Amino acid sequence: MTASVFDHPLLSGLLGDTEVAAQFSTATELQAMLSFEVALAKAEAEEGLIPVSAAEAIAGLAEDFVADLDALNQATARDGVVIPDLVRQWRAALGEHASHLHFGATSQDAIDSGMMLRLSEVLRILSQRLAAIIAALDGLETRFGHQPLMGRTRMQAAIEITVADRLKSWRLPLVELRDAVAALSGAGLPVQFGGAAGTLEKLGTSAVPVRARLASDLRLSDRSQWHSQRSIITELGGLFARITGSLGKTGQDLALMADAGTALLGGGGASSAMPHKRNPVKAEVLVTLARFNAVQISGLHQAMVHEQERSGAAWTLEWMLLPQMAVAAGASTRIAADLLGSVERLGDA
After folding, report:
1. Is 303:230 a contact under the CB 8 Å cutoff?
2. How far apart, in whole angstroms, are the C-alpha atoms of residue 338 and residue 332?
3. DSSP3 helix / strand / coil % (the chain, rounded to 5)
């Protein structure tokens, strides 16, 4: 048994998301940080800060380098971050060009920029899935939108509405979220590059041009360092929580409709004791994921308190929370698409 349900050998089938979780694998994380170093070396060579031959050698690490994971594990326990020993391993592989690797950068630059690269891919995945869910809701409206449905306020019968009216309350927040994801992706998540204390002191007048080249090569946005200003982290976490929350509302409604007989859901949900049952498992899990992320977002707001120029405590808390929130949002979109595809009937009998 693992400590996280998202990679549990059994529960991950219910709560996990392999496509989003892949962005938080060790291999993907190491590759993203190396991509930062390769792009940094290229930018610094173009600005004349390091030799072109050094940048080419650093680029070659992407094909040839194999990390010593045991050494990284032990070093991270000592240093609190993976980069010092990873840089040591990279430099050992580079030989004569070793001193030009990681020039002017700090651990946070590589780790945060690597995280933004991976989260950019997460946003792409979520964008595609939200579009598919919206299309599924449109399909349900075509099939069942005209059907009568008793509206309910405060869990009591109110006035008659149509299925289309309820579908609209599920659809509109998702359209807003799809647009919010598109806006973030379009603007580009921010590169992180500030050096030891956020001043890029080693680069002098080349600092801003190097950062601009670095951001362009990584397809991230060029922004001033944000070592201790963590609003982008809470913005992303908030987006994940809004996705799970909106889909949790859909799940809660469908579970109640299944109970009332105003929704018929296909698929699994078998009971070991009562073979006649068809439990609304996917609808329930959407509620669970919504509540999970609602809890985690408070932790990310705690992590905004990055003291002075860099915080070890707050930064580490982000690593514990944000990946799980991303996977929860991924699982929520995956499950919602399956759930909506299983709907056999909506509306009052």
Report:
1. yes
2. 10
3. 70, 5, 25
Answer whether 330's CB lies under 8 Å from 132's CB: no
Residue 218 pLDDT > 70, yes or no?
A: yes
Question: What are the tens digits of pLDDT across the range 12-55?
Answer: 898 899 999 999 999 999 999 999 999 999 999 999 999 999 99
The candidate with the shortest Cα–Cα distance to 280, out of 331, 344, 324, 328, is: 344
Do residues 226 and 190 make contact, with C-beta atoms less than 8 angstroms apart? yes
How far CA 225 is from CA of 26, 193, 207, 230, in Å, comes to 25, 5, 11, 10
Main-chain phi, psi angles of 299, to 5 degrees:
-65, -40
Residue 273 has pLDDT above 50, yes or no: no
Q: Is 271 a catalytic residue?
A: yes
Q: Is 310 a catalytic residue?
A: yes
- Residue among 53, 169, 271, 298 flagged as catalytic: 271
What digits encode the pLDDT tens for the residues 49-94?
Answer: 999 999 999 999 988 899 999 999 999 999 999 999 999 999 999 9
Residues 6+ apart with CB under 8 A from 139: none
Sign of the C-alpha dihedral, residues 244, 248, 254, 259?
positive
Of 243, 212, 214, 42, the residue nearest 117 (C-alpha):
214
Count the neighbouring beta carbons within 10 Å of the beta carbon of residue 30. 18
Considering the candidates 88, 152, 310, 345, report the single residue annotated as catalytic. 310
Rg (CA), the chain: 24
Residue 148 CA: distances (Å) to CA of 265, 278, 346:
18, 24, 9
* Tokens linked to 206: 């080349």
DSSP string, 11-44: THHHH--HHHHGGGSHHHHHHHHHHHHHHHHHHH
